[in-house]
């Protein structure tokens, strides 16, 4: 597998000025290939050390993840009213039978860690250096020191915190997620989990988004990368799908047709900093409620358990103030951070934020072994997280939903912030007022007596029930079926009359051996409204047609069955002929 070459999209490298951070030599000792150490361990030499500054949503996510794991040490630093984290990484050479063996790890602050969290690296008479046990991985011979460090830094939030669950103190940890040896929690009432792929959405088409996508897929995730960048191509060696925000020929929003466990956003942040419930990292007993209506909809409708944003403070400054004014602010912020860190002996001597538990073992080591690295060409000792023009233009040019104000297309539209709390009956009543009666609808007095539906309340073997755009995409569009869909609503008396007649028609076609799928969908309620809007239906009853999974003809509305108009439309669908709108409209 080829390593990913990067134009340093995540890491904007800033030169180090007046650094107190110096390298030093260490004496040799043996280690195993699985990176397990007897403390203290003696290295031959430190071949590379690097200071990294993590900030913005990236830091916030890592901080919340660390708190969820019960880590009370190394909580970051304050700078210019913002929280930042200092990560010091080293690569050391081992002196065993193979002198090229190397390890990478994150340096810990000896005043803020417990003894069982670290490994002591002896420096030949000088004070020992402590490395977090959970950060250590061996570096393959094919990976350079610089690439190992940039990969470790890049994988902390957008990969590890996205794919793995926090390991809490009282968790019963078993293995199995992703089909490999991943760790996941087992609650007191659970039985052993089956191995299940974690479904992940990554938003963005930049180099960092590509790295996160491929890393998550390599760890075992079922990953879809959503981007407007048409130059991003599928990587066939990994389980990765590439898609624009609109899915399929009908361009349904990705959130309306897909369920997923995790969403990683490299372009923006829909959550407020500090809200663990929005990230999916809150304690189950904390009672915290996410204030973001968009994320609450993702959690409810798409079963999204975690929302991760990797937006940096520099990115946010450029997004907020524009590329002209924001660019200079981002550059100044990065320079000021580097100056503060590089001129402080205490800041550059160790890390101010701890790595997640088992980061080296479960994330970094598999990535390095697979050759998935985030390449960096920098030779400097301090880097900050920056911004790049490609991500900026993708964010500002991302299409917006016409019904959702400034909400990016693909995310669920929040028409009413209280909509999630409404009672279903009240919501249906509201929706019923929004769907007008069709022009051909006769009065209730003219509607024949509603016949008894023998299949009411039972599974209907002749009519497929479509519950939302996800079902439509999965059952009709994806399999490219020929289909007729009956859109109705519970308050529509004409619809209730047509329902048993529609079942009889479906049974007639099934008995005749016609390969036409008869389906129905409720056009009321929030999910029903999404279906009716997508199909261009503003009145019920209505019938829509698909041929080979693509829209066929126009919407047909009838008030009685049997219907010459409906029969003619179905005959055209079965025969494969072109839609004949004048003929259909001439019939009653």
Describe what this molecule looks like in 3D:
This protein is α/β, with parallel strands linked by helices and 588 residues long. The chain folds into 2 domains: 16-169 and 196-386, no CATH class; 424-586, Glutaredoxin, CATH 3.40.30.10. It is built from 15 helices and 24 strands. Strands 1, 3, 4, 5, 6, 9 and 19 form a 7-stranded mixed β-sheet that branches. A 5-stranded parallel β-sheet has the order 14-13-12-17-18. A hairpin with a 4-residue loop joins strand 15 (246-247) and strand 16. Residues 1-34, 172-194 and 416-452 have low confidence and may be disordered.
Characteristics of this structure?
588 residues, alpha/beta, 7-stranded mixed beta sheet, 5-stranded parallel beta sheet, 15 helices, elongated, disordered N terminus
Shape: elongated
Structural class: alpha/beta
Helix tally equals 15
- Report the helical percentage: 25-40%
Sheet with the most strands, sense and barrel status: 7 strands, mixed
Radius of gyration: 29 Å
User: What would the average pLDDT be, to the nearest integer?
Assistant: 77
How many strand elements? 24
Low-confidence stretches: 1-34, 172-194, 416-452
N/C terminus separation: 63 Å
Q: Approximately how much beta-strand content do the residues carry?
A: 15-25%
For the record, the count of structural domains works out to: 2
């Amino acid at each position: 597998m080829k390593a990913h070459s990067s134009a340093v999209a995540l890491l904007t490298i800033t030169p180090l000025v007046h650094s107190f951070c110096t390298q030093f030599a260490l004496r040799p000792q043996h280690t195993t290939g699985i990176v397990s150490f007897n403390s203290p361990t003696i290295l031959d030499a430190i071949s590379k050390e690097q200071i990294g500054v993590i900030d913005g949503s990236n830091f916030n996510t890592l901080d919340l993840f660390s708190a969820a794991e019960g880590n009370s040490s190394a909580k970051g630093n304050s700078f210019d009213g913002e929280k930042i984290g200092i990560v010091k990484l080293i690569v050391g050479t081992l002196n065993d039978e193979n002198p090229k063996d190397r390890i990478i790890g994150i340096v810990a602050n000896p005043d803020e860690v417990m003894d069982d969290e670290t490994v002591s690296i002896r420096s030949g008479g000088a004070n020992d250096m402590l490395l977090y046990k959970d950060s250590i991985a061996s570096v393959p011979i094919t990976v350079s020191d610089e690439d190992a460090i940039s990969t470790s830094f890049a994988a902390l939030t957008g990969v590890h915190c996205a794919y793995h669950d926090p390991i809490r103190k009282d968790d019963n940890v078993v293995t199995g997620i992703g089909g490999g040896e991943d760790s996941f929690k087992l609650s007191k009432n659970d039985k052993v989990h089956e191995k299940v792929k974690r479904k992940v959405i990554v938003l963005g088409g930049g180099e960092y988004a590509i790295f996160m996508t491929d890393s998550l897929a390599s760890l075992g995730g079922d990953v879809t990368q959503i981007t407007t960048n048409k130059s991003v191509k599928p990587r066939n060696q990994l389980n990765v799908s590439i898609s624009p925000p609109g899915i399929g020929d009908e361009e349904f929003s990705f959130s309306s047709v897909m369920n997923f466990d995790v969403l990683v956003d490299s372009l923006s942040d829909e959550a407020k900093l500090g809200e663990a419930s929005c990230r999916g990292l809150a304690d189950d007993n904390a009672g915290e409620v996410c204030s973001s209506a968009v994320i609450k909809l993702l959690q409810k409708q798409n079963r999204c358990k975690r929302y991760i944003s990797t937006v940096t403070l520099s990115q946010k400054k450029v997004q907020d103030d524009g590329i002209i004014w924001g660019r200079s602010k981002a550059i100044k912020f990065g320079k000021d951070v580097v100056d503060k860190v590089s001129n402080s002996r205490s800041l550059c001597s160790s890390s101010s934020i701890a790595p997640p538990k088992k980061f080296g073992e479960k994330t970094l080591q598999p990535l390095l072994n697979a050759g998935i690295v985030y390449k960096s060409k920098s030779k400097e000792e301090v880097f900050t997280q920056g911004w790049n023009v490609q991500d900026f233009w993708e964010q500002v040019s991302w299409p917006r939903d016409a019904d959702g104000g400034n909400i990016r297309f693909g995310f669920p539209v929040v028409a009413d912030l209280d909509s999630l709390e409404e009672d279903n009956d009240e919501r249906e009543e509201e929706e019923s007022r929004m769907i007008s009666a069709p022009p051909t609808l006769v009065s209730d007095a003219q509607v024949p007596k509603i016949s008894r539906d023998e299949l009411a309340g039972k599974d209907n073997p002749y009519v497929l029930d479509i519950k939302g755009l996800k079902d439509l995409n999965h059952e009709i569009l994806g399999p490219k079926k020929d289909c007729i869909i009956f859109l109705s609503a519970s308050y529509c008396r004409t619809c209730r009359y047509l329902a048993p007649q529609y079942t009889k028609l479906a049974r007639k076609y099934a008995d005749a051996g016609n390969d036409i799928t008869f389906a129905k969908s409720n056009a009321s309620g929030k999910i029903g409204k999404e279906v009716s809007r997508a199909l261009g239906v503003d009145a019920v009853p209505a019938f829509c047609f698909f041929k080979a999974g693509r829209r066929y003809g126009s919407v047909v509305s009838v008030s009685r069955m049997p219907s010459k108009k409906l029969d003619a439309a179905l005959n055209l669908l079965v025969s494969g002929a072109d839609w004949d709108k004048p003929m259909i409209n001439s019939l009653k």
